[in-house]
Amino acid sequence: MQQNEKLHPAIPDLKVDLDKGKLTRRDFLRYATLLGMSAAAASQMAGLTWPQKAFAAKPVRGGVLKIAGQVHKITHPAQFSWVAPTQVARQVGEYLTFTDGKNITHPYLLENWEVSKDLKTWTLNLRQGVKWNNGDTFIADDVIFTFSQWMNKDVGSSMLGLVGEYLDVTGVEKIDQYSVKLNLKKPEIAVPEHLFHYPAIVLNHRAFEGDFIKSPVGTGPYTLETYLPGERAVVKRRTDYWKKGADGQPLPYMDGMEFIDMGTEMAPQIAALKAGEVDMIDLGDVAGVDLFQAVKDDPNIQIIPVTSASTRVLRMRVDLKPWDDNKVRSALKICQHHEKLLSLVYFNEGLQGQDFHVYQLHPEYCEKPIPKYDPQRAKQLLKEAGYPNGIDVNLAVGTWPDVVRYAEVLKQDAAPAGFRINIQTMPTSQYWEKWTEVDLGITPWMHRPIGTMVLNLAYITDADGKPVPWNETRWSDPEFSKLLTEANGLINVDERRKVFCKLEDIQQERGSIGIPYWRNAWYVMRKKVKNVNGVPSLYITFNDAWLVA
Fold first, then answer.
1. What is the pTM of this model?
2. Domains along the chain?
3. Following DSSP, what letter does each residue of 476-506 receive, concatenated?
4. For tag attachment on the chain, is the N or C end more exposed, with fewer CB atoms within 10 Å?
């Protein structure tokens, strides 16, 4: 550990838990780094050596990476609701932190951070010498402005639901040009991870006026050259990016990236990848099983697997009939045959879910049995709810292949219980326009590194009692919210897990969702693309990747 590195008072206790076997080394690293310790120092304390960056080959400069991926219409980054439109924006804009493929969160536009013993005061120390692509200097005013955008209810950002529970805009304090203090209303351990939520791109307070495409000013390694929604987007390498490569020159190694919108059908994209017309297919919002099956034996294509808490959520609007009745919700949930769904829908490329939004590899996960398929019990619940002759319901889905298959299997398996499901399939872009409004739907949810994060995003209300922007089911439970607030402020993993046992029970027994399976995820690209380190969220962060002929 560096001599000038401050040690949070909770870290020695984490080390004791590690030595007693109560905490894995990976989870020790996660929590120690969240508390402000560098990854290298935390690794040393855990008896590990933090790996130095080593290249199997000398980096090559030049070339343009061609990616098949949807090019959506976008304006305000804080309003992003899915991964695909962020893939272009993240080449131009950047985040205060970065969570890697091992779920370790590092400073990025921050140099480091410090946190008080009670987890209520966070000091963010900005990296100095960073320039925006218009020549402005990155300073504290940019960070404060960005937070103010997140907190503005008129913007409608999911960041408000994520951080608004513990932070008001009045709690964001400028210390000096390169330091910002966050004065929290409640303790929160996961602040650094929240800063890498994909709508959290940092904005230039002097240049941003609400439309990132009209004024694409960012600190990232590329500049935006072309953006045609539904067609293509092109980014070009900056020559003055703040981060250096292995050769001592500014990153990135590649001259640029081109995102080519080929629609939502996977077959033409697979053909283009095999033919070398594109180098990669963006799977950020796309089920990759069809692609995986089609190219896994192709000698020119590489598949980079990442463990991911990505899933498909069967979600029910509790403010609309019949889903305001928990008996109806419970009936539909137990019409899911979890093992069958994982097998038929996702070829067993994942884990079975348990109808709560906590993944088995989240550090605070509390082990629970897989819910059993029970159509007879579901039929009885419908009868008790006033539907002795069954019920007709509409199920809205986008055209993701596994989502459509999920809906078809559910329709078949729920029929014996009395559910007559009408599947309403629509283009994925249309689903995303109404995903929070349909009464019954199946929504893709991407990876989150810690259990509390997604629960805060999707299953609580704000200070005024209104559902947070991403609470698509409108579900709110006072006991659940109280326990979640408690979990947010707990450092001890055992104590967090005890709370999560209760949270999982509540969501399973009276919640608004079904989760039958968790999805394995992959980056799929041609072998000419080198030095790609995947992250579970499938973000395209290829600053130090390169291309070979």
1. 0.88
2. 1-52 (no CATH), 56-93+220-300+527-549 (3.40.190.10), 95-209 (3.90.76.10), 308-519 (3.10.105.10)
3. --HHHHHHHHHHHT---HHHHHHHHHHHHHH
4. C
